[in-house]
Amino acid sequence: MYNKKNKMSEHIGGKGSGASSSSEFLRAYRIGVLAGANASYSNIPKKAAISYTTAADLLEARNQRGILADLSSILVTESTCPVPYIPGQHRDLVYVSTNLDYANLSPGSNGIAYTTDGVYATVTNFGTLRSIDGYYNVRSGLRNPNGVMQSLIDGKIYITSTVYGTLISVTIGGLGYSTVVPSGLTGANGITQDNSGNFYVSGNAVYKVTPSATVSTISPLVSTGITYASDGNLYVTTPTYGVYQLNTLGAGTNIYSTTTPLYGITQANDGNLYICGPSSILRMDLSGQVMNFAPLTGAYGITQGADENFYITATSGPVYQIVVQ
User: Which of 31, 45, 199, 276 could form a disulfide with 209 if both were Cys (CB 3.0 to 4.6 A apart)?
Assistant: First the structure.
């Protein structure tokens, strides 16, 4: 899907075969989102004359986080797949429609992630990790799975358990399985990861899990969703207080106050945060300015696919597709 022709065109603003305007350039040089329900959008490092030709190249680019400040140093390549906008050079996504009951997982569907193998969702009631593409179980026998994401560092799927407070890893395809943290993540819900490989888990508090699996509590905040954003901060939703911006040490502030319960949160390729509320999907910029984005009742987990559309679990069971343009 991520094949690119190796044909290079002129720099941005040039009149070569690749792009005749900056807007055409932005459309030509967008990369696929490979983030989980609580992961942030891609930041492409500034590299002159580099053509990202495979999914592995794209993953490497995402791991080298850095806002692209000088577009003139990047050469245009022709892409054969739909991909997002370059961070900092984007337009806001526009809601088009909601596809209802895209894949009914039964009540208990919670976390959702866009992975290199398609969209995965956890189903707590059945203890499964399920693929939405084909509706098959990737892994069974999980203990109350909830949050889910794919690491961009090792490519594994990481899953939290609300009841048991565990963190496990599963390989793409579901064959490999290991326990990363056996307990201590009380009430674990959402999960996200920073550029150094540290995980952050929302729950009865906000927890940090280092790459060596050391657990610490960085904030006593009771939280539902969590995402690591492009500004290096964590954004955390709560059941009663709104949205908090925290640094990776746990210090922060309430940037959006509401007593309405909020759940899943993700940063999309347009740089905005998208949040599951009880009756709608909210869009919030990093300063805390909020607007209703799409009507949807019972939304719980949210992720963005490479097609730029959102995929959302609901407490009643269905997975919804929010179509954008």
Answer: 199
Stretches where the chain sits below pLDDT 50 are 1-53, 60-89
Q: Quick check: helix, strand or coil at residue 58?
A: helix
Q: Are 35 and 42 in contact (CB under 8 A)?
A: yes
Contact 157, 168 (CB under 8 A): no
Please report where in the chains the tokens 């991520």 appear, as a residue. Answer: 2
Chain centre to alpha carbon of residue 72 = 28
How many structural domains comprise the chain? 2
Same domain? For 118 and 167 the reply is: yes
- Asked if 54 and 157 sit in the same domain, the reply is no
What sections of 180-285 are H helices per DSSP?
none
- Specify the pTM: 0.75
Q: Are residues 120 and 64 in the same domain?
A: no
Q: What is the pLDDT of residue 68?
A: 36
Domain boundary, last residue among 48, 79, 110: 79
Pair (255, 151) in one structural domain = yes
CA 236 to chain centre: 13
φ/ψ (deg, to 5) at 172: -55, 130
Domain limits for position 224 = 95-324
Are 223 and 189 spatial neighbours (Cβ–Cβ below 8 Å)? Answer: yes
Q: Are residues 122 and 259 in the same domain?
A: yes
Q: What is the dihedral of CA 201, 143, 315, 186, to 10 degrees?
A: -30
The answer to the question of residue 87 being in a domain is no
Tokens of 275: 């949040």
**pLDDT value of position 191:** 98
State the pLDDT at residue 80. 34
